[in-house]
Amino acid sequence: MKKTWLEKLEDKKTFPKVLKLEENFPCYNAVHKMGANAGDPVVLVNASEIIPIMANVPRGKIITILEICKKIAKKHRVKGCCSLTTGIFIMTIANAVEEAIARGEKSMLTKIPYWRTLKSDGFLNKKYSGGQEAQKKLLEKEGFKIIARGKKYQVSGYKDFIHSI
Question: How far is CA 112 from CA 65, 77, 115, 124, 125, in A?
Fold first, then answer.
């Protein structure tokens, strides 16, 4: 039987995990852009560390995966955070929120404004429930201007709205 998004969100016993960055890691380029080099310690995060960050982004502000990774790396006192793992958990959190709302649940989870969490460079996330179009509507409802970049959408001037954490 297929797991629900809420089941996928449960803490993984093997995370967080600190590893030495290797050039063959799938997230190497992104983590390297954060300042980590091969051999430096990096963290593979757990969803439970991402949830409070996403939950605390106020109306009128946004956050990107890069800011989330920087905060988590700082917390673990390492050079970087695996953006691939973080991105997977961000998508899982967003879909779990929608799943909980659809079930009529009333919990902290259903209050997470996941649509304020963007991909790198301010792009919307097509893997959220309803895709980019649903995220676009939620962001526009809050006053953000969304611009088309080919098949992708981006928050116009997104750097001006980054939530400092």
Answer: 16, 26, 9, 16, 16
Task: Give the Cα separation of 117 and 136 in Å (integer).
Answer: 12
- Decide the pairing of beta strands 117-118 and 63-64: parallel
Domains and CATH numbers, the chain: 5-161 (1.10.10.10)
pTM of the model: 0.92
| Four-point Cα dihedral 151, 145, 87, 37, nearest 10 | 100
For 100-127, b where at least 16 C-beta lie within 10 A, e where not — what string? beeeeeeeebbebbbbbbbbeebbbbbe
* Per-residue pLDDT of the chain in tens (165 residues, 90 and over written 9): 788 888 888 877 888 999 999 999 988 988 888 889 999 999 999 999 999 999 999 999 999 999 999 999 999 999 999 999 999 999 999 999 999 999 999 888 999 999 999 998 999 999 998 999 999 999 999 999 999 999 999 999 999 999 987
